[in-house]
Amino acid sequence: MADSTQNGPMQGGAGGGAVQFLMANKLETAMWISRLFTVYCSALFVLPLLGLHEAASFYQRALLANALTSALRLHQRLPHFQLSRAFLAQALLEDSCHYLLYSLIFVNSYPVTMSIFPVLLFSLLHAATYTKKVLDARSSNSLPFLRNLLEKLNANQQNILKFIACNEIFLMPATVFMLFSGQGSLLQPFIYYRFLTLRYSSRRNPYCR
């Protein structure tokens, strides 16, 4: 009886610590949830377990969720919006602005598997980082199996970023091919080229260069 009485508050305190951490960081938590949803929708598009028709809708949901995450992240980086050229120039330096544009480029286009991988992998990396923080807030030894998975993912972060950069580059000829095959718009290759020039100047992912 004494042991169960002592373990109960400890377990409740561990869970309470995670809840308090999530509530204290509401914007980060919102982005964490939207990234997990992006991973979920992207996985169901890549692996169409519910059918090809449903896979197309999950493609759009993943890009819309990524757009939401990017908008929240951009708001976090630049909280004071200004309708000025200087503010726009500053916003265009942010990776979150790049991927907000990326989501808008592909959200209404013909579903392309290659275009979902950067969204999926970035969401997975960022969600894994925040998940580790949540686990640390809960308990330093909680869910060791999940921690090991997160550590392995973090250990391969460099390779994942390189793969994302290559994927971004190879999407350029893919947009041109989509145009000639009747599956893309005339403006898409030009807008995507602008996206690539922004990625080249990225301050957070040097592998884009």
From TrEMBL:
The chain crosses the membrane at residues 32-52, 99-125, 169-193. Keywords: Membrane, Transmembrane, Transmembrane helix. GO terms for cellular component: endoplasmic reticulum; membrane. One of its GO terms (biological process) is endoplasmic reticulum tubular network organization. It holds the Pfam family TMEM33_Pom33. Its main location: membrane. It is a multi-pass membrane protein. It is found in: Membrane. PANTHER family: TRANSMEMBRANE PROTEIN 33. Belongs to the PER33/POM33 family. This is TMM33 protein. It comes from Thalassarche chlororhynchos (Atlantic yellow-nosed albatross).
